[in-house]
Design goal:
The protein is mainly beta. It has 3 helices and 25 strands. The protein has a single domain, classed as Distorted Sandwich (Beta-galactosidase, Chain A, domain 5), CATH 2.70.98.10. The longest helix is centred in the N-terminal third of the chain and has 5 residues. It is globular. The relative contact order is 0.17. This is Galactose mutarotase-like enzyme.
């Protein structure tokens, strides 16, 4: 049985559930359309910093934030378009703005669609008109994130997009990763390193960019919790980023369509023509062993 419920707390929260599979997802539209919780068979899979989440002046650290119209940061948070300079903060604005719920489905799965439209606030930092539609679909041990990007303006729209899942890991020493790449770039030291499936988790921060991926899936194996999470993504995602902080019970495994600073360099940047739509998808599954 699939269901959608609503609970009124600090923020209105939509709860998608698949009761026979004992799975549920919680979505908070007004906090960036974010998924804050994904639970399967009693296991919480996502990390959430509740204190930051409760403060609307802070970006959320946890759940699955949406990255748009950039992934990562820009030098000095600036880019140029047609001779004018704009300021755009790290990961863009989609994760900070309220989204609107437009549709719910409980037949064959539990699904909900959220919309974000351009506004005077977005045009001040990104001079393009758009509509984003994200549909979250829960069924069994899988969570699909279907995305549609529409250019509603009269000029080509450059952008990149991605997801920033925070996975809960109380014992990161027992983690192993399968990422379709042989090396990564350390964004802190700006050096290249071979990838062996594990990271040195004794350092304060790891920010590893896999910019030459050879497949469309990445897997995190948590031996301490006896589970593995698998991300499957479309070919439009050209980068995978791994990020974590020492002494924090999370790791992030992030599919991006373009690397940092793509709005300035143009590398892997999407350019959507006026009136055009573009769709993509990320699918997350969890298995226990």
């Amino acid at each position: 049985m699939f269901a959608i419920a609503v609970k009124e707390e600090q923020y209105k929260t939509y709860i998608l559930s698949d009761q026979p599979a004992q799975s549920r997802v919680e979505v908070v539209p007004e906090r960036g359309g974010i998924i804050t919780r994904w639970q399967v068979q009693g296991h919480d899979l996502l990390y959430l910093d509740a204190e930051r989440f409760a403060n609307p002046d802070l970006s959320v650290r946890g759940g699955i934030p949406i990255l748009f119209p950039i992934c990562g940061n820009l030098p000095n948070n600036t880019y140029s378009y047609q001779g004018k300079e704009y300021n755009l903060k790290q990961h863009g604005f989609a994760r900070d703005l309220p989204w609107e719920v437009t549709e719910g489905v409980t037949k064959d799965l539990a699904g909900i669609t959220l919309i974000l439209n351009s506004s005077d606030r977005t045009r001040a930092v990104y001079p393009f008109d758009f509509e984003l539609a994200f549909t979250y679909k829960l069924k069994g041990n899988s969570l699909e994130i279907d995305q549609r990007y529409t250019n509603t303006g009269d000029r080509p729209m450059p952008f990149s997009t991605g997801l920033h899942p925070y996975f809960w890991a109380p014992d990161k020493s027992k983690l192993q990763f399968k990422i379709p790449a042989v090396q990564y770039r350390d964004q802190i030291t700006q050096t290249q390193h071979p990838f062996t499936g594990r990271f040195d988790l004794n350092v304060d921060e790891i920010d590893a960019a896999f910019t030459k991926i050879t497949g469309l899936a990445a897997t995190a194996i948590d031996h301490s919790r006896r589970l593995q999470v698998r991300l499957l993504f479309k070919a439009s995602y050209s980068n995978v980023v791994f990020w974590t902080l020492k002494d924090k019970d999370f790791y992030c495994l992030e599919p991006w369509t373009a690397p940092r600073n793509a709005l300035n360099t143009g590398l892997h940047l999407m350019n959507l023509q006026p009136g055009a739509k573009w769709e993509t998808q990320v699918r997350l599954t969890v298995d226990f062993f």
